[in-house]
Amino acid sequence: MIGDMIVAQQMPEPMLESVPTWFVVLGRRPVVAGTGWSHRVDVRSGGNDGFRANERSFAYYGVMSSEERFQTIIDAEDKIEPPDWMPEAYRKTLIRQIAQHAHSEVIGMQPESNWITRAPTLHRTAILIAKVQDEAGHGLYLYAAAETLGVRRDEMQELLHRGKHKYSSIFNYPTLSWADMGTIGWLVDGAAITNQVMLTRGSYGPYARAMVRICKEESFHQRQGYELLIRLCQGSSEQKAMAQDSVNRWWWPALMMFGPHDSDSTHTEQSMKWKIKRVSNDDLRQQFVDMTVPQADYLGLKIPDPDLRWNEERGHYDFGEIDWEEFWRVVKGNGPMNRERVAHKVKAWDDGAWVREAAMAYAKKQAHSAA
Amino acid sequence: MSYDVPVAPGEKAEIEETTELSGESWPMWEVFVRARRGISHVHIGSLHAADAETALENARDVYTRRGEGVSVWVVRSSEVHAFEPEAAADYVEANEKVYRLATAYEIPEEVGQM
């Protein structure tokens, strides 16, 4: 609320009688307040849809304090856009989350590119290259979204290289067999989609838009993975055993992707209010398990959890407890592949320095000779 | 998966925001794609590139891999100019002028579609 400047009055013109619109006056400037935008005034606009739709984007301005306006936009299921005022903690939380998400996409290229030259057919090689290229693109969309919050991409990368930024722990597990290319698509990308569909409804515009693009492409990732496993499971007994071994290794790390229990999750409440997060870790995990178990049944693969069973009463699958010790060990940097993944990333970045510098030097020279 | 970065017990959640960077970064470009003939180019995202030529190539590789468009524009982000957010209050005036809208006028039903 900005001081005592708010006065509500009805529009006087007789012509507009059919549109009972309320004004909120801020200083000398009247500002239209539409239905639901202001919790201060009982505002009501009539049956004129054109007018309502039009006023919607602008009604937030001038009515409330920055902080109230920010939360009102979010509560109204609208998006916060880069030039808008936002609480510093919202900005920081988003940078932290989007950066870790971007790093995950980029580091996520490593376990799969490991198999590009060893894919069994040219067709599978092409699919794998396309998928890895997508992951690079996802990293790019996400870094660009984070940059709208006033942080530079190079800065985020530097923090990743120095171990100050994290990425999803799932990529700290090795890809030991060809079946892992199927399991990663099915379980890892499946878990990612479960979370990312929620993120398309997040409150920050650039992040939500990036998620829409990413989800479309992830769907290809998941389906190609599942199809790969169908082929293996319909193949020889060795091929099916390879698929089972792969699921045995990836099931639990995939469940860990949803993060700690809600009871141990530090920022959930604030993130929910800000709609950065819209569904809790445990709810998303349950959703993933419920969706995945029938898919495993179709493949004829066994999920490595003795406690897994359908609970008629809850209408969900019950499942066993995650090894949280392992979870935190990998998060803290002591998983099977943590050091190798970061070392490889740093090397690729350093080895590419001359290319980046040469491209810049060339661009400058061209601009100079054009002038 | 949770991109909500897990904070280990006893660990600080703050990110370190200032970093010394060596070297010069490629400038940022805004990418606009015409999805098909007959409609305008629409902003689709951004990227970094040394010059316009490589920006176009990167845009093609990143944003049009699945038939998303038939034409691409790239514009240096520094060349895009916009009003400050506070200036948005000025747009409110446009909303006050309901008489500019076709829907503000009642036409008797017997006249038919207009």
How would you portray this structure in words?
- The complex is a heterodimer of chains A (371) and B (114).
- Chain A is mainly alpha-helical and 371 residues long.
- Chain A has 14 helices and five strands.
- In chain A, a hairpin with a 2-residue loop joins strand 2 and strand 3.
- In chain A, helix 3 packs antiparallel against helix 5 and helix 7 runs antiparallel to helix 11.
- In chain B, a hairpin with a 6-residue loop joins strand 1 and strand 2.
- Chain B is built from two helices and three strands, in the order ββαβα.
- Chain B has a three-stranded antiparallel sheet with strand order 2-1-3, with helices on one face.
- Chain B has one domain: Roll (Ubiquitin-like (UB roll)).
- Classes of the chains: A mainly alpha (371), B alpha+beta (114).
- At the A-B interface, strand 3, helix 1, helix 3, helix 5 and helix 6 of A face strand 2, helix 1 and helix 2 of B.
Short overview:
The complex is a heterodimer of chains A (371) and B (114). Chain A has 371 residues and is mainly alpha-helical. Chain A is built from 14 helices and five strands.
In CATH, the topology of chain B is named Ubiquitin-like (UB roll)
Radius of gyration of chain B: 24 Å
Number of strands of chain A: 5
Distance between the termini of chain A: 53 Å
Helix content of chain A: 55-70%
SSE pattern of chain B, N- to C-terminal: EEHEH
Task: Give the strand content of chain A.
Answer: 5-15%
CATH architecture classification name of chain B: Roll
Structural class of chain A: mainly alpha
**Whole-number count of domains of chain B:** 1
